[in-house]
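Q: Structure tokens for this one, please.
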Amino acid sequence: MIILGINAYHGDSSACLLIDGRLVCAIEEERIVRKKHWAGMPVKSIKWCLKSANIDAKQIDYIAIGRNLYAHLDKKILRILTKKPSFDFIKSRLKNAGKIKKVKEIIADELGVNVNSLKAKVKNIEHHKAHLGSSFFVSPFENAVCVSVDGFGDFVSAMRGFGADNKITVSDCAHYPHSLGIFYTALTQFLGFPHYGDEYKIMGLSAMGKPVYMKEMREIVKLAKNGFFKLDTDYFVHHSAGIEMTWTDGEPSIGKIYSDKLGDLLGEPRGPKESITQHHKDIAASVQAMYEEAFFHLLNHSYEMYKNENLCLSGGSIQNSLANGKILEKTKFKHIYIPPAAYDAGTAVGAAFWVWNHILGNKREYIMDKPYLGPEYSNDGIEFLLKAQGLKYEKLSNNELCKKVAGFIADKKVIGWFQDRTEWGPRALGNRSILADPRTAKIKDILNERVKKRENFRPFAPSFLEEDVVEWFEESYPVPFMEKVYTIKEDKRSFIPAVTHADGTGRLQTVSQKMSPKYYALIQAFKEITGVPAVLNTSFNENEPIVNRTEEAIACFKRTKMDVLVLNNYVVCADKK
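A: Here is the predicted structure, written as tokens:
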């Protein structure tokens, strides 16, 4: 049984393949087309998945897409009749819907085959059900409370239910126009960060402020008795005029969401090029605190509904690692699973597993405990490219490689680390990473000057040996996919200043030998040299999607000022180019 899962005509377009209930490959379209958050039909991702698994399109049994135009149709119609959004808004939504209806025809056309030759049945899975499926169906839990939170999808911004065996029973959801994701995006725009996906900048900025505007935030977001939330829509425009969105073949964009009344409450909005003041930092801290207040309200109410200590989370808002790191402290949940792609790209996986498990009734036999599901490149192919580009290199065994690179990092060198299969999800998790020494505060400025060229308030993350986390952090629950921020123990912060946020926290990745043996060995070698069981880990890119192919890694290395490039077992030093 072969199921193609896709996220199409939405931000973070993606594709995956399930073969007999096992996820064999998955990739975001942005990694291939090189445009951040790319929206549209993930044609190149589909082609790569089929080629990687040696599958012909005619063998596909189901095409699962995380969109269902008919979900909550009554509420959609009522909204149009009562609020009367602009004609252009309605026209754009109808155009997007038309493409969703013709998924099979569009895929056939892009693959150059007759649509009648494809036996695949198309299954439209409601957006938030696909989110829930992307977490629970690949989790290690037999049963769990399931919660998703994001901007909007199929007229819903949050959903909860209970997963047991191979089924998820949905209990209730938050409908348009009320959304924590919209709240966070609107305030992100207000603070001068207008691009799709900029919310993570507010998370970084919040560590430098104090939540002094909670009174104002609670005017914008109201907690509801059922565990959900309500927005005061006077501070927004999405409910009346609709949101100007672009979901075409390129980088998605989203128009202004907040109304002028927000300026009356919080002062003048910041322009993208204006300096960041303490006022802005305090607003960011207040936005984060309000999100957490509503988020934990939802989780605690959900726990009381089911009295189950297992929690599966998904949705774009679950990329909020600050809130995720406080779940064990703020709720009664004891066990948490968040997939590596909790955001919209993950709906490709969730839709596919919803078909396999929930609709077809198959047993759950797959656990996503590793994020490495994308392309990989052989040593032979890498060596060919290095020779073709005239780069001098050294080939080492795994053991020699880890010891040598650990020494480079200890000597304050910046390393481009490219290994095996590309990560699934937005985080670099040790296969497409830039690595550096976490012991030196100046390394942050060095990385930004030489490579990243990003705002100085944005923190870098540490990758720690899993078994050593308990000695360095207040919380030691495993974080394999870098999805939580924990408080670093006060007496340890001075040892790793490059990865310690202004508030004493760090966005952690725990590395186990089982998940990533070579990356584990590298960190172990660094520990033997320095006594610190961690390296600074940031994504291998320069204001672009994370590098995917060998050619992209070499190009990034050449145009930046990294000291060393490591491609599988090959080492290239900058002074030997």
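A few notes: The CA atoms of residues 183 and 231 lie 8 Å apart. The radius of gyration is 23 Å.
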